Every structure is written in C-alpha cells, then in structure tokens.
C-alpha cells in the first residue's frame, strides 16, 4: 500500500498526530526556544513540527553556516497558498542562511505536462515574488542546472523502483519522467551542500511533503562514505564503501585512534569534532559529506471558501496580480465563523478558529501579535461584525498586495536574469 500522504495526491488532509507518531516528526515548540527570535509562523502554530531543526537553530544562534532551500513547481501563477513557504525561506535568509530556490520546471513538465515556455513564464512570477519579499541567494531552473542533473544521477544510484512505489504509489504505467522528477527534487534539496559546502540545511515544507524529505535523508545517508557513531567510551567511524586511502586518512586525522577492518575507533574527542574532521576526509576522497537535511512542517491555510486552498479552486485563494474587484469579491464572500444573526453574533461572539477571514489575518495579514489578539478579542466578544471585519481585512489585503506588486515590478530584472 502506498503512502496516504504524498505531494501529488488530491487528498491533502493530513493527520498531524499520526505523522508525528508514525514518522518521528517532532513538535517545534521545544526547538523554537533555542532561537534568538521566534518567528510568527512558529509562535502562531503554523509551523508545527520538524526533523533535526536543532542543527539549524544552533547554526542561527552561533552564526555558523547553514542553507535554506525551497522549490516551486511552475504549473500556474503563484498565489496566497505559496506565501507561507516564501516567508519562511526569507526569514531564514535574514537569520544568516544561504538561500536557494529551485524552479521545478522538470517536475511541472513531467507531472503536469506544462510546456517549457509556460514553465519559464510562471517561474519568473515565483521568483519576482520571492525577491520582492526580500529573498537573497541562488535561484535556478532545474532544466538549466547541469551540476544538479549530475547530482540527481548520483542520487538515482541509491533509489529503486520499489521504494518509489511505496512512497508515491508508482506502478507499471507510471512514466519514467515521474521518477526522474522525484530524483531531481532529491538533488534540489542536496544541491546547496554541493554548491556551497556541507552545512545544515533547512527545507520548510507542508506536512504533505514529508515523503520527499524522508527519501532525501535516506539518499543523503547512503551517499556518505562514513558513519560516525557514539559508542559511549569511544566514537566509531565506520566505512560505507570508503576507499582504503580514506579509512587510512581518518586514522591519521585522529592521533591515538585505532584502525580495524572497515572502521576506526576514536577516543577523547567530542562527537561534533569527529564528524567535522571525517566530513573533510570524505570530501577530499570524492565523497559529498552531506548533512541529512532538516525540515520544518507547516499546516495549510484553508481556502477562503472554507474548503481546501488549491490552484484549481479559484475562489479558495487569490493571485498576487489579481484584479481588486475579484479580490474584493472573494474576501467579502469568504466563509466566516460568524453567527446566523447579528443579535446572536453580539450575544455569543464569533468563532475565529473556524473563520477563514481570521486565519487569513493569522497567516499573513496581521504581523503584530497585539493587533491579532485584539481582532480575536473583538470577534469573540461580539463587538465586531463579520461585515466590518471583512472590510478591515480587505484593506489590509489591498495594502499588502499593492506594496508587493510595486516590489515585484521593481525586481523583475532579477527574475529575468536567472
Ligand atoms: Fe471571522 Fe471576523 Fe466574523 Fe470573527 S468577526 S467570525 S474573525 S469574520
């Protein structure tokens, strides 16, 4: 049976508790406390889980190198639903991360049949939005990145069809290009470490993308020449197909270490120091020295109409360049947590957690926690009517989009240069 959560399934309903229990995703609250500044998407419970984010949190705190990466599939124009990942990437870049953004044109072409020309046209809009939001770093189209393709080929030596069948439900009729696009995405996630050197890498994703993360971590592990295991009284550096010269180099790197067939035992040094030195040896002997990529998981903003937010449901979201008239119509028609009558609303108050207008503010339109808390209080006390609330929200949406569009226009040249 294939995984119930995969990025291409139509059913994006994700059972958070099950994912946490079954796949070892950890709640983000504990690790967020290690950050010098907790971003609103963590404070507000939008990002709920992580894998190995402690590596990234420590890099932020200690100002040591780390990478942040995401990819966008250019199968249509960017919209509200893409904003969260963009903000997460930009936030990490501002915390000192080396930013990478892949335009997944190979995936759009293979999986959705989008022409290369359209991929380029849509891809440019994603990049404009990212730059407008403050992104700095490296951006590329998968189809134009030759080193990425070589890395994808190397990664493909570590994945077989039964794994793809188990993760994505691939069957005998699945086009080979689907498999190639999966492995290209694996390479996307590892690419920053190839390009700028091994370092912790954060990949902010929605919970439905976890299969990609698990597969990539598995490939990163398999591409390593050594494992470094803490055995209590010593650290064991074990070879996984490392050439004899590399094992010998590890032995020489640690005076007093003992060399056996296929492994070297090191004593008296902290695990991190041994890891770093082994990584250097590995790279000097043709290995990659990859860190397993870290990930954070965010929940999805529901659609404005109350269902799922999706590019294929026009009223669920709005594009960044959509007309004011259309946006007004969508916001004013959004599903609220209001009561049947005004009298009831005044008496009982609204239900913000069941309201897409409130969630639009929580996700994107109200940056200030005090203002958001005030909106919640006014809603729950019955002081605010839904009509008034929508009007206020629409003003925020218009102000946000007008600023974003101006900035997108101003950075068009950056997106064109990619
Ligand atoms: Fe939603 Fe605002 Fe109505 Fe409260 S007052 S239910 S937040 S639209």
Automatic annotation (TrEMBL):
Q: What class of enzyme is it?
A: ligase
Species of origin reads Methanoculleus sediminis
The GO cellular component terms are: cytoplasm
Family recorded in the similarity comment: Belongs to the class-I aminoacyl-tRNA synthetase family.
Cite the entry's keywords alphabetically.
Aminoacyl-tRNA synthetase, ATP-binding, Cytoplasm, Ligase, Nucleotide-binding, Protein biosynthesis
Task: Provide the GO biological process annotations.
Answer: tryptophanyl-tRNA aminoacylation
Please give the name of this protein: tryptophan--tRNA ligase
**Record's InterPro entries?**
aa-tRNA-synth_I_CS, aa-tRNA-synth_Ic, Rossmann-like_a/b/a_fold, Trp-tRNA-ligase
Q: Decide whether keyword Nucleotide-binding is in the record.
A: yes
A GO molecular function held by the record? tryptophan-tRNA ligase activity
Q: What is its EC number?
A: 6.1.1.2
What PANTHER family does the record point to?
Answer: TRYPTOPHAN--TRNA LIGASE (PTHR10055:SF5), TRYPTOPHANYL-TRNA SYNTHETASE (PTHR10055)
């Amino acid at each position: 049976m294939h995984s119930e959560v995969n990025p291409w399934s139509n059913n994006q309903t994700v059972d958070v508790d099950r994912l946490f229990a079954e796949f070892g995703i950890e709640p983000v609250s504990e690790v967020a406390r290690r950050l010098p500044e907790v971003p609103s998407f963590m404070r507000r419970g939008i990002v709920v889980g992580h894998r190995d984010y402690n590596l990234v949190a420590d890099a932020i705190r200690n100002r040591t190198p780390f990478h942040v990466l995401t990819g966008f599939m250019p199968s249509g124009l960017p919209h509200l639903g893409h904003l969260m990942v963009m903000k997460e990437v930009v936030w990490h870049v501002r915390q000192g991360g080396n930013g990478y953004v892949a335009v997944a044109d190979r995936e759009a072409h293979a999986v959705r049949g989008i022409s290369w020309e359209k991929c380029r046209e849509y891809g440019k809009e994603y990049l404009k939005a990212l730059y407008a939001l403050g992104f700095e770093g490296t951006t590329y189209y998968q189809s134009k990145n030759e080193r990425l393709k070589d890395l994808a080929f190397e990664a493909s030596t570590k994945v077989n069809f039964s794994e793809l069948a188990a993760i994505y439900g691939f069957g005998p009729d699945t086009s080979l290009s689907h498999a190639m696009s999966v492995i290209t995405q694996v390479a996307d996630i590892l690419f920053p470490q190839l390009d700028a050197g091994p370092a912790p890498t954060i990949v902010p994703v929605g919970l439905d993308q976890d299969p990609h993360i698990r597969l990539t971590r598995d490939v990163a592990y398999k591409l390593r020449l050594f494992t470094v295991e803490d055995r209590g009284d010593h650290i064991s550096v074990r070879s996984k197909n490392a050439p004899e010269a590399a094992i010998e180099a590890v032995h020489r790197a640690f005076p007093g270490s003992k060399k056996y067939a296929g492994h070297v035992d090191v004593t008296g040094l902290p695990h991190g120091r041994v890891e770093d030195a082994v990584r250097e040896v590995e790279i000097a002997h043709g290995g990659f020295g990859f860190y397993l990529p870290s990930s954070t998981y965010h929940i999805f903003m529901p659609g404005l109409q109350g269902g799922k937010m999706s590019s294929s449901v026009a009223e669920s979201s709005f594009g960044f360049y959509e007309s004011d008239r259309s946006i007004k119509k969508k916001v004013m028609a959004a599903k609220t947590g209001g009561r049947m009558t005004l009298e009831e609303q005044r008496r009982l108050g609204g239900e913000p957690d069941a309201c897409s207008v409130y969630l639009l503010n929580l996700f994107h339109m109200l940056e200030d926690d005090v203002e958001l808390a005030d909106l919640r209080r006014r809603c729950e006390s019955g002081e605010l009517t839904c009509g008034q609330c929508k009007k206020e929200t629409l003003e925020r949406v218009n102000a946000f989009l007008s600023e974003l569009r101006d900035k997108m226009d101003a950075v068009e040249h950056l997106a064109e240069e990619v």
